[in-house]
Structures are given as structure tokens and as C-alpha cells.
Predict the structure of Nucleotidase.
Amino acid sequence: MHIGVDLDNTVLDATESHLKYFNLASGLSFTPDDVNDFYLYRLYGWDKTERDSIYNQFGRDIHWNSVPFPMAIETLKELFKHHKISIITSRPLFFRDVTVDWLIHHKINYHNIVFTENKLQECIESSVDVLIDDGPHYAEQLALENRPVILFEQPYNKNVRHDLIYRASNWLEVKRHIKHLSN
Ligand SMILES: [Mg+2]
């Protein structure tokens, strides 16, 4: 199978590292329990422009210091032996270097990496068989186009339901879904 893999809040804990640097920038002190929005910056009352300016300033540190979720690296290592793995991230190209360096640092193998906010189009054009992602909008877009998604559970995607959306709360469940889908 061709498996698309998101990074932030799928392979790694982006919430924790964003909060750390956004708290630093704002002087506020939010914790993961406060997060119930895919667009975490809205917690801080920032608009898109304010968020972009903070993100440009701290993005490198945010991404470099993100910690992988338990079993994510081990599972990807195993999947890489049997499947084509494309990392599909909506991070801007501006953060390509830190992203690739982080993947090398954590010894994550993949065949392809794409930076795009239009994941549906990428999945169609590259014939991705299943996308692993936490984004509620991506999951819904793909499912509506008859494409299966493994939805990595986060507080902001709890209510997303569809026959083609397979929920996973950890990487062992991701692995189980992949096994089922590749049979
Ligand atoms: Mg994500």
C-alpha cells in the first residue's frame, strides 16, 4: 500500500511543543487540557497574522523539540519494510530543513515527503491508499472521496465519524488498522 503519514499530532506531540513556545511568547500558561481546537493559536486570541509572526520566530524550535508518540517510530520502521511511506505535512516549505533533520535524528525512514495544505489533492495525485492524520477536515474530505483515513485521536477530532474513518488512539491501533486495510 501507499501510506500517507502526517507529522504534527500524528507521529509527534505538536501540542506540547507549540504550547511551550506559545506560552513563552505570550506570557500565558495553557496546558494540553486547554486544547480543543485544531488551530491551537486561537486559544491565545491571536489572529492568523499574529500567529504567523510567532510561528516564524519559534517554528524551528517548536518542530525540533517535538517528541515522537510512543511506538510511532517503531511502527513506521516496520511499515516501511512492506509499504510505500509518504510523509504529507501541511508545514510550510520554510520549515523543510528542520523537518527533514528531525526525521533523520529520529531515524524515521520514508520514501517521499510533501509539504502541502491540500492533502486531498496530494492523496489523489499520488494514489495514496490511506492517510494517517489527526486533522478533522482532512479526514472528512478524504472519506467523502471514498478514501480511507486512520484518524489519530486528538481532543478536537472526537466527533468525526465516517465508515472510512478508522480511529486510532495510539500507534498499535494504527498498525492494526493498516493490517486490516492491506488484507
Ligand atoms: Mg497533524
About this structure: The longest helix spans residues 48-64. Residues 6, 8-10, 133-135 surround magnesium ion (CB under 6 Å). Residues 140 and 161 are 8 Å apart (CA to CA). The radius of gyration is 16 Å.
